[in-house]
Amino acid sequence: MLVFSTIASFEAYISTFTKPVHTIGFVPTMGALHQGHISLIISAIAENDICVASIFVNPTQFNNTEDLAKYPHTPEADIAMLRAAGCHALFMPTASEVYAISETKPYFDWGYLGNVLEGSHRPGHFDGVGQIVGKLLGWCKPTKAYFGLKDYQQYLIVKKLTADMGLATQIIGCPILREADGLAMSSRNTRLSPHDRAEAVLLYNTLLWIKANATLLSTYALEQEAAKRLQNHESFTIEYVSIRQADTLAPCNPAESPQNAIALLAAYIGGVRLIDNMAL
Ligand code: AMP
User: Fold this and answer.
1) Model confidence pLDDT, tens digit, residues 199-254
2) Residues whose beta carbon lies within 6 Å of some atom of ligand 1
3) Which residues share a beta bridge with 172?
4) Distance of alpha carbon 24 from alpha carbon 42, whole angstroms
């Protein structure tokens, strides 16, 4: 696997491929890799001639400086995992390579999508995501880019970004990989204490409960009961439990059972913010 740390060397490598003869599959990450990330790499390898990954902990998408400071870094293990998976190239720039000192975060009009759930709880987060994903897609010019459905709202935002920018890259949403007990794999899981790690599975179990009852109860009742289940646990601070229309994240009719919907939640567990979702 080739490793690039400068934009110039990365773009020179990318320019050696002629499209559409060679297809490039791209997997952007923030490192601290786990099998969820590797599942995206495996899809990119299977569907393209070349698989390119990036590792960059993008400071502009963190609305909380402590979260950025505590974000796990495991570069040696990450490189070994990517090599073992058969990834062809890795772009791993520094912040000063990516951002000019004078550079300010752009404002994107994400419409409704930008103002709800993660958008309202993490102000500026999606502008930072748009800023970095726009840059990375511009340098890599992939045929397909792979994003996890674990970050479902981010997946919709990135699809809107590429459509609005008129980019040729196809955005592929990949299923959520989970630990044996059902907790969604996340780089942040390593920050959980053993006690909180054991409790965290309640997020998944709550989503399962919503799905099991989705045809029996109204959206309102499902959201109320799910929130109650989470609130009963002292280590949890819930940000949202919400059932939304899957394609737009618009609210579902509270009086009816949800149709074509997705349940999404975010909670702090012992100071670590986790998100998860499940299509209903
Ligand atoms: P991150 O490094 O957390 O920014 O994630 C990089 C990519 O991996 C994003 O597209 C995530 O949605 C995806 N990802 C993270 N966790 C999982 C998971 N458990 N299953 C599938 N994809 C994931």
Assistant:
1) 999 999 999 999 999 999 999 999 999 999 998 788 889 999 999 999 999 999 99
2) 29-30, 36-37, 39-40, 147-148, 150-151, 174, 176-177, 184-187
3) 146
4) 13
For ligand 1, the distance from its centroid to the CA atom of residue 37, given in whole angstroms, is 5
Query: What is the reported pTM?
Result: 0.96
159 CA from centroid of ligand 1 (Å): 16
Instruction: Please write the tens of the pLDDT for every residue from 9-60.
Output: 999 999 999 877 899 999 999 999 999 999 999 999 999 999 999 999 999 9
Q: Measuring from atom 17 of ligand 1, which residue has the nearest CA?
A: 36
Q: Which long-range contacts (CB under 8 A, 24 or more apart) does 58-61 make?
A: 58/30, 58/98, 58/128, 58/129, 58/131, 58/132, 59/95, 59/128, 60/99, 60/105, 60/124, 60/127, 60/128, 60/131, 60/132, 61/124, 61/125, 61/126, 61/128, 61/129, 61/131, 61/132
DSSP 178: B
